[in-house]
Amino acid sequence: MDADVIVLGLGGMGSAAAAHLATRGARVLGLERFTPAHAFGSSHGESRIIRMAYFEHAAYVPLLRRAYQLYDDLNREDPGLFVRTGGLMLGQPDSVTVAGSLGSARQWGLAHELLDAEQLRRRFPALRPEHDTVGLYEPTAGFVRPERTVLAHLARAKAAGAQLRYGEPALRWHADSAGVTVRTAHQEYRSEHLVVTAGAWSPRLLADLNLPLVVERQVLYWFRPSRAELFDAKVFPVFIWQDAAGLQLYGFPDLGDGTVKVSFFRHGTPTDPDTLDRDIHPEEIDVVRAALNQHVPAAAGDFVRGAACMYTTTPDQHFVIGRHPQQQRVIVAAGFSGHGFKFTPVVGEIIADLALQASTNHPIELFSPPRFGSAGPPP
Ligand SMILES: Cc1cc2nc3c(=O)[nH]c(=O)nc-3n(C[C@H](O)[C@H](O)[C@H](O)COP(=O)(O)OP(=O)(O)OC[C@H]3O[C@@H](n4cnc5c(N)ncnc54)[C@H](O)[C@@H]3O)c2cc1C
Predict the structure, then answer these.
(1) What is the pLDDT of residues 151-204, one digit of tens each?
(2) How many A from CA of 340 to the centre of ligand 1?
(3) Residue minimizing CA distance to atom 31 of ligand 1
(4) Which atom of ligand 1 is nearest to the CA of 34?
(5) Are strands 87-91 and 188-196 parallel, antiparallel or unpaired?
């Protein structure tokens, strides 16, 4: 055997899995088609929102508590990797963004404040709330740095003895009672277990599972605000703002270069990961600028740059994490549906549990791979 565990894909989730597996003593072989912390998948673009009052489902909160501990630990090694700026979930009181966050905060006793439009205007003068807009403010929300998180996990994995091979795409895998074989562009490897963390390429590598995953192009936009002082990270939080039509605009404070990054949460177009359109088009800049003019007008200064990224989305927008239904040796972690990055360290821990032990104590029922009922025959 070349390894105890092969980790296929060393992006957000795979780098964390390699770190947790290797530090627990497993012999890890990591395979990555590109370079460390590259910009061709889903884990680039300087910042990712992290928050605990989770509107997507209250079942994520225990995982987030653990993710916060693990991010604090990474932040001790690389200060600034995780920054608590506070976070605002904005919208009408009955919007998913506000009501869902409030439900999670109340259920789990999380620190929060509910602010009306007048209070929002006073505390955050950059915001232009309508009379019926409210905001759930969570003091412990903030952002993490995706590239630095990936590099920190890769460094930990390497320090614990993992072999990490870059520029080596895996072409196919096979598992049976004797072990796992992975064929790459260069050679063939054998291992006891396989972890598939291939992001937007997962649907291809897991074609036998027929998971209903849709890969979407999503664009990040950096603008130079007209009033920079309003967006300093000391006074301006991360935010997600749901409008009456359900569209969620989100953004970050100035991370120190005089720009603010904004985007739409889930408003992407289906794409193929190998032919992703990386150009940023004037008409899409106009759409995000119009939303900024409405909600955060002082941010709508010069457009500085953009970056295309990919979501891999499931129909219920919950993750897919667990053992391959037909292959006990194979662990799958995919379909992070545009909100996975804040979980990377805890997903690494879950993957290590599943590969090295029979099960995990973390609550992952929501993420069961066979829940869509479409698993095909064994490969
Ligand atoms: C624009 C945007 C904004 C986001 N904002 C947030 C946010 O604010 N908060 C949040 O929590 N989440 C956010 N997310 C989601 C989060 O970033 C993703 O859920 C997460 O990065 C997914 O990680 P991954 O490991 O699945 O994918 P990736 O990081 O893309 O990793 C997959 C890796 O597998 C490699 N690979 C694929 N195929 C092969 C192969 N055949 N052989 C070898 N290697 C292979 C790829 O090269 C890649 O490195 C955002 C995502 C985007 C795109």
Answers:
(1) 999 999 999 999 999 999 999 999 999 999 999 999 999 999 999 999 999 999
(2) 8
(3) 11
(4) 47
(5) unpaired
